[in-house]
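Fill-in record for TIGR03960 family B12-binding radical SAM protein.
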Amino acid sequence: MGGDVVLGAGGTTLVDVSVQSVFAQLEPLLPQVSKPVQYVGGELNATTKDWEATCVRWCLMYPDAYEVGLPNQGVMILYEILNEQQDVLAERTYAVWPDMEALMREHDVPQFTVDAHRPVGDFDLFGVSFSTELGYTNLLTALDLAKIPLHAADRTDEHPIVVSGGHAAFNPEPISDFIDCAVLGDGEEAVLEITDIVRKWKNEGSPGGRREILLRLAETGGVYVPQLYDVEYLPDGRIQRVVPNADRVPYRVFKRTTMDLDEWPYPKQPLVPLAESVHERMSVEIFRGCTRGCRFCQAGMITRPVRERSIEGIGAMVEKGLAATGFEEVGLLSLSSADHSEIAEVTKGLADRYEGTNTGLSLPSTRVDAFNIDLANELSRNGRRSGLTFAPEGGSERLRRVINKMVSEEDLIRTVSAAFSNGWRQVKLYFMCGLPTETDDDVLQIAEMAKNVIRAGREASGRKDIRCTISIGGFVPKPHTPFQWAAQCDPDTVDSRLRKLREAVNSDRKLGRNIGMRYHDGKPSLIEGLLSRGDRRVGRVIERVWREGGRFDGWSEHFSYQRWIDAAGAELPPLGVDLDWFTTREREENEVLPWDHLDSGLDKEWLWSDWQDALDEHEQDDCRWTPCFDCGVCPAMNTDIQVGPTGRKLLPISPVGKGSPVSNPAFSGG
């Protein structure tokens, strides 16, 4: 863990020594790879600290390419919070492309950080944030390149503690062989507490070695250490129970919830990428959590309760972030940004503040029933009028009741008609295919909805150049949602329905030529389903896929469905299960699920009741504005919903120079 073992008269002690950069070995390789700039570091607002001057050292990874990983808010926030601690160092690493991986193996260059190009294997902690399960094979590549044993059981005191986080950490069982621990929920306070525990242990001389530090982390109740739990199975393959195998370890591990987001205004100094990235903007998370209750949405379920950032807090973050980065677009992020109780005041205040500058605003996620033209006009006041994006998710009214997406087609048509009459020309609609109880007809109604959007747009605008794009993804049942018991739809059925949908869209050429259709086949979704609801036995499949060349499985050009099918076919049947057992099988109410010992705050009985309501096509209201439905989160987490409205306004900042964001760092809120 970032030190040398020295034998002295008093026994064995750990002495921290400087860790050398590997850039001299790396530099000759850069001209031989694609996008070499992604490996050089030195971004605006990046931090490099003195190794010897720090006690606890973190390497943070988003297990995807630099262009995807650098804009990730979670990693960026933790990077800044950790580096604010005087005796803590945090650096970043990303998944290397296969061309770079091959050269690193050939020239014996280890997995390195982009900040100071230090070997990942020399850090105390290696934190990996998973927002999708398809990044698991990239974790194995990074571990292997870092010369960290793949299996946690084979690691010694010399190796970093491998910590997983992100939404996928709410069921880390498929990667339990490869990680030392997992943190559920918000990371801001969790990483500081983990750092404190590691600091104290190191200062004491690292008593008890690796097992002792893992025990200390586990006994907090907020860090899950898989090797300290045993899983017992029934003869039919189901789990009988998951139990601790050490005295100091709790039976359940709770998620972390950061309250009062104004106390955590991160990132204060957002990173500015050197290479092109997926998001070229400065982003501010305006609230966390969602209580809409969409039954398919894991993010909405596991991030409860709703916690809003205040209008002043948002204004201060936007001001500081623009000054620190030079970005010309501000993304107001959340699961459904227009649901902020003061979104009208936020957007108007920011639009007023930056009118006459190059600064534009965007809401990446908007619900039809939370959208209005006044809001859209504020967002496009600086002349940037892109297309509008909405997510009905289900094609039919019946299916939207099943998934609790309470949006009617009338709402959608009314909204897009108003938009088209106010100058918008295109709209994008997101749907899912393979949802529980779905029929061919439910999917075919997507075509009719798109045609009605074109008709309404032409009528409202008097123009023919109206466009509607429908984008369709395969549904994957997720842990800690009412659909965690559901059978996943098989890829052949999904693909068949999508073919019929394309035929229906093209059946009327006068309308169909104005409708674009984007979709992925159902095969990657089935593998995501295996990884999402799998247990420890799935780890063998992941490792076999990786050993046979699996990399960047979230990228269609790298994903091999056959490789996963073959690996599952080889590894699972000897264990008494198979791919269908984990994916297309419906679970019973009393089945022990692989993640039942990991507490998201949601009551399992409430989730089951909501699953029954889904099958009965019964909708559930948003508990922010109605009486509590007893989902369990607020009492279990000792939290409560934090919402406005506050009635406050953003005051203008002066002076504001034309063509630039702001020149006065002073901020005031009314």
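KEY FINDING: The chain has a mean pLDDT of 91.
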